[in-house]
Amino acid sequence: MAENWWSPDLLGQRVDFGAWKGRASELARRWASQSRLRFTARREALLLVAVILFLLFVFGDLKLVAALMAGLVAVAAAAIAPGASNSLGPTAGGPAVEHPSTMGAPKTEGWRALVDAMPDAAIALAADGSVLHFNGLFRDLFPRCMSGIPFSHVTRNPELMAAVDQALAMSEPSVVELTERVPLERRLSATVSGQLAGGGGAGQPALLITLRDQTEQDRLAQMRADFIANASHELRTPLAALRGFVETLQGPAREDVKARERFLGLMQAQATRMTRLIDDLLSLSRVEMRAHLSPRGTADLGEIASHVTQTVEPLAKEANIAIALEISVPCARIRGERDEIVQALLNLVQNAIKYGRDGGHVSVRVAHLPARGLAGQQVEIAVIDDGPGIAPEHLPRLTERFYRVNAGKSRDKGGTGLGLAIVKHIVVRHRGELRIASEVGKGSTFALVFDEI
Q: 294, 142 in Cβ contact below 8 A?
């Protein structure tokens, strides 16, 4: 017999009974699936009906046959009656089924996901200029921004506000260059778009502003210029010395073994000095490039102080200087990059050992500072020495590049004049403070002060 057999119906047409059986089977499977979902959604109600029928059977006059019939009726009604488990919405314990009219329709809040996914800082404004939504990059630039507030409360830059008003009125895009100097110098390029597809209706964006931070690009250009100027100035002396030693070895001291050994030692010292100078210049450039980026990690000043103290112990022993650690705060945590704080503290401790008194003493102290008004708790990590001290006229210039109190002694000790400049830039990036106190003949104190979290 053929798989699909034919039979005339009352109208003389032919009916495909094989297709009819397939559709009937599909409808049966669909009904069984929906019935299962309805049972799942109404299981608590069915359980309550069963408990009531059982109590009526035990304590009342309800017969067993009547109780069973009532239970079967309740089960049939749960399987047949439409409700929360139909195809119009999600069911309890079952997957959500979309209504055909909503399938493929755009999500009303999809524009928020687009704002979040933008590679630049972005903010969406309503037709009245209030903030609707912004992404994480924009929050990093303006931490106090909140949804619902006027955009004028986020920034008061007159050029940007004028561009916003123009875009809202005339739907014309524009680009504005912003320069901020507080708390750090920073240049931003803001692009203000025109009318968006949402039309500025209720809850819909009317304006999109994107901001691209140009600070790093500017710092790279400045870094190149500074590096060329500083390197050419500082490298001139050791290069001249190396050239003189090479000419001497090639000429009068060609056969002088003692002179050759002495000059080779001097040449090695000058080459080491140039290497150290280039390393410090590159380190300073890296710190300056990130000065506008707020630290995201956390650091424990007590752990950092212990680590640095153990690291410099061999250097202190070689210089005949005793080093001590004083930690009065069990857990002094700050918002910061651990490696940069270690670098800053290591510079201060090495300076104290290099320029301290022979047979002297250096202390590394971590302590809380007295609270000042409404400001939060501050913690300091200080390096204290009993060396010769620094005259008052030198203190304001200590963090300048290549500034040295005693240039000859600094070069003899291997200093490059960049250590305190690196420390200053690290502290500025961490929104901290570098405090320097010194008295001639009594020693110096260099303290890094941060807000505790």
A: no
Residues 6+ apart with CB under 8 A from 316: 322, 323, 353, 362
Report how far residue 185's alpha carbon sits from residue 421's, in angstroms, rounded to the nearest whole number: 17
Percentage of the residues of the chain whose pLDDT score is greater than 90: 27
* Section 188-211 average pLDDT: 77
CA angle 156, 160, 164 (to 5 degrees): 110
Q: Which residues, in sequence order, are CB contacts of 246 under 8 Å at separation 6+?
A: 267
Are residues 416 and 280 in contact, defined by beta-carbon separation less than 8 angstroms?
yes
- Convert 235-263 to b/e letters by CB count within 10 Å (16 or more is b): eeebeebbeebeeebeeebeeeeeeeeeb
Phi, psi (rounded to 5 degrees) for 367: -155, 160
Residue 87 has pLDDT above 70, yes or no: no
**Contact between 402 and 412 (Cβ < 8 Å):** no
Tell me which of 46-55, 100-109, 180-189 is least confident. 100-109
User: Which residue type does 178 have?
Assistant: L
For residue 233, what is the enclosing H or E element? helix 215-250
**Which residues lie closer than 8 Å to 366 by C-beta, 6 or more apart?**
301, 302, 305, 326, 327, 328, 329, 332, 379, 380, 381
CA 40, CA 91: separation in Å to the nearest integer? 8
Tokens representing 87 are 């195809």
* Close Cβ partners of 432 (under 8 Å, ≥ 6 residues apart): 334, 448, 449, 450, 451
**What is the C-alpha separation between 126 and 206, in angstroms, rounded?**
5
* E strands in 358-442: 361-368, 378-385, 433-439
Measure the N-to-C terminal CA separation of the chain; round to a whole number of Å.
Answer: 85
Domains of the chain (ranges plus CATH)?
6-80 (no CATH), 110-213 (3.30.450.20), 216-293 (1.10.287.130), 295-453 (3.30.565.10)
- CA dihedral in degrees (112, 118, 122, 127; nearest 10)? -40
The two counts, helices (H) then strands (E), for the chain are 12, 14
Cis previous bond, 183, omega within 30: yes
Q: Per DSSP, which regions of 51-130 are E strands?
A: 121-125
| Cβ atoms within 10 Å of 196's Cβ, excluding its own | 16
Contact 198, 205 (CB under 8 A): yes
Task: Please check whether residue 389 is in contact with residue 344, taking contact to mean a CB–CB distance below 8 angstroms.
Answer: no
Tokens of 119: 């590679």
Phi, psi angle pair for 124, to nearest 5°: -105, 135
Please tell me the least confidently modeled range out of 163-172, 393-402, 427-436. 163-172
